Amino acid sequence: EYQKHIRNFSIVAHIDHGKSTIADRILELTDTVSERQMKNQLLDDMPLERQRGITIKLNSVEVKYCAKDGETYFFHLIDTPGHVDFSYEVSRSLVACEGALLIVDASQGVQAQTLANTYLAMDSDLEILPVINKIDLPSADPDMCKDEIEEMLGLDATEAVEVSGKTGKGIPDLLERIVQDIPAPSGDLKAPLKALIFDSKYDDYRGVVLSVRIEDGIVKPGDKIRIMNTGKDFEVTEVGVSSPYPVKKEMLVAGDVGYITANIKSVRETRVGDTITSSCNPTATPLPGYRQIPPMVYSGMYPVDNQKYDDLKEALQKLQLNDAALEFEPETSQALGFGFRCGFLGLLHMDVVQERLEQEFGMQLIMTAPSVDYHAIMNDGSVKLIDNPSDLPDAGEYQDVQEPFVKAEIMVPNDFVGAVMELCQKKHGEFQTMDYLDKFRVNVIYKMPLADIIYDFFDDLKSFTKGYASLDYEIIGYRSTNLVKIDMLLNHEPVDALSFIAHNDEAQTRARQMTSMLKKLIPRQNFEVDVQGAIGAKIISRATIKPYRKDVTWKIHTGDPDRRAKLLEKQRKGKKRMKAIGRVEVPQDAFMAVLKMD
Ligand code: GTP
Q1: Which long-range CB contacts under 8 A does 236-240 form with residues at least 24 apart?
Q2: What are the backbone angles phi and psi of residue 572, rounded to the nearest 5°?
Q3: Is 16 annotated as a binding residue?
């Protein structure tokens, strides 16, 4: 009976189309949170999400809704991120649901991630309820939106719900439609326990907190459970739902979405995508789980203080629990010492990981410039994977280097097609096709190197098209493009962490740019520093960083004690993100300089 009153759904949309705002209105209207607790974008509770105003993590919440039929329904709503880097979070949350609210901004219509997320929802066989948001805007055009939803997504939009997350208009209708249109979960209460872990996080007091969708059976405190993929057994200490603060429950039953804690202390014992069953009465087959998504970019991550290597390792393991797409393995750099090579889904993901390690785990890090993974075809025909430019062997040892290519789909209004093509050409793109989506918009398709997409393509695209273009891409394979490795030398010593790979015809320019960037970014030392760029043994660019002039340092030794303390403090802070390479102090920015070249 209870099962019939459950509705599990995700909210999906293109970035900024208003998912989090609509989730807020739903929480408000169902009195899930008191007015005092209500703050904007309540579900974006990570400090970083609030700072940046974007959703990074999926977030689930139980909402009780008293419907017009007089019955109370339990909504399990999962808010998901919209940015292309985080679509793996979306696909994970969809597996826990029967339905999806597809939010489309009434003034912008269907965008690239609207399409991508709709396909994900269709793949999971979800009931999709189209919702047109921001109807309060003067530029809103709900009819155009409906046409696009029908033409481009193949969904019936005649019944689309029109709402404004800002004013709350239409939200009551939306709640009723959720009850009517989204099916209740099925699942056998009497069958052995079968639950999918779709998310997890580490809590210092409770150990690992698992977010689960119960497919079959029942789970309650005291039960013995088994994580099927590791075979490890645990005793359940607590079950409950997030509302959005944790609320304990007596049990979770088939169809429920909630959390389980079981004194799981080691982070290696569970993985997102694993199946939980009962130890005494296990189910025969685990749930399908998730496809592991390969990283798109790699970067080296080193503690500023070498003593903190173990702390960094532990922090990465804990963070990985909450971020299944993060990959890392130990790496040693001559210049930076012991650290990790980490794989990310994109630069935003990389940024987020770095900031979370700093904010949530108090780490201070030096990150090296991101790189895609290259394939070196060695002389004996074998393929060596190169996820760190400094690992590329010397020119004589390989026949060829190949780089990953993507198919990029760019949706853009007619007027900007020229601008988009100009940009893609500049980024080594090869034009494929161009389809008219409707009277005003075009889908432009290019093949281009992944490296050209991940660095700053997205920002450039936004500025070239006044923010009107949207982008989606997928890897299609590897190609030879005439690449060379450029090494950077400080005082004639190559610094492995500064090496990068570039197209041969641009090597000279890039080396020069990098040299002058380093000259700008590395502060003066009390001796002269030579900066050089080289291909193999051949120096192709050079610059000199002049030493301090004497009168800069005396400040520290004189003056009143207060002022001196301040100066020392300032110097200490400035040093926080410096790493000594030989005798040269190099700041974090220098390692990222390669990102700032055009
Ligand atoms: P991500 O989670 O980062 O993908 O964004 P989102 O889809 O959750 O969008 P969010 O709810 O953060 O809203 C994006 C912006 O649109 C915010 O500035 C909102 O205030 C604004 N917004 C959301 N709904 C409405 C609406 O109905 N009308 C108007 N005028 N603005 C809205």
Answers
A1: 236/260, 236/261, 236/262, 237/206, 237/261, 237/262, 237/263, 238/206
A2: -65, -45
A3: yes
Q: Which residue is listed with tokens 């793996």? A: 88
User: pLDDT tens, 413-471?
Assistant: 888 999 999 999 988 999 999 998 777 788 999 999 998 888 778 888 888 887 778 88
Q: Which residues line ligand 1 (CB under 6 A)?
A: 13, 15-21, 41, 54-55, 81-82, 133-134, 136-137, 164-166
With H, G, I as helix, E, B as strand and everything else as coil, classify residue 355.
Answer: helix
26 is known to lie in a ligand binding site: no
pLDDT tens profile 190-217? 999 999 988 888 888 888 899 899 999 9
pLDDT of residue 439: 75
Give the single-character DSSP code of 83: S
Q: What are phi and psi of 73, to 5 degrees?
A: -110, 150
pLDDT number for residue 39: 60
Quick check: 340 pLDDT over 90? Answer: yes
- For residue 585, give the nearest of 507, 527, 536 by alpha carbon: 527
Q: Is 40 annotated as a binding residue?
A: no
3-class secondary structure, 22:
helix
Q: What is the DSSP string of 568-580?
A: HHHHHHHHTTEEE
Q: Is 136 left (phi over 0), alpha (psi -120 to 50) or beta?
A: alpha
Band the pLDDT of 54: cuts 50, 70, 90: low
Q: What is the pLDDT of residues 552-590, one digit of tens each?
A: 444 555 455 566 566 556 555 555 567 777 788 888 888
Q: How far apart are CA 436 and CA 482, in angstroms?
A: 34
Distance 229 CA to ligand 1 centre (A): 39
ipTM: 0.96
DSSP 8-state class, residue 307 = G
Residue nearest ligand 1's atom 21 by CA: 18
For residue 82, which atom of ligand 1 is closest to its CA?
4
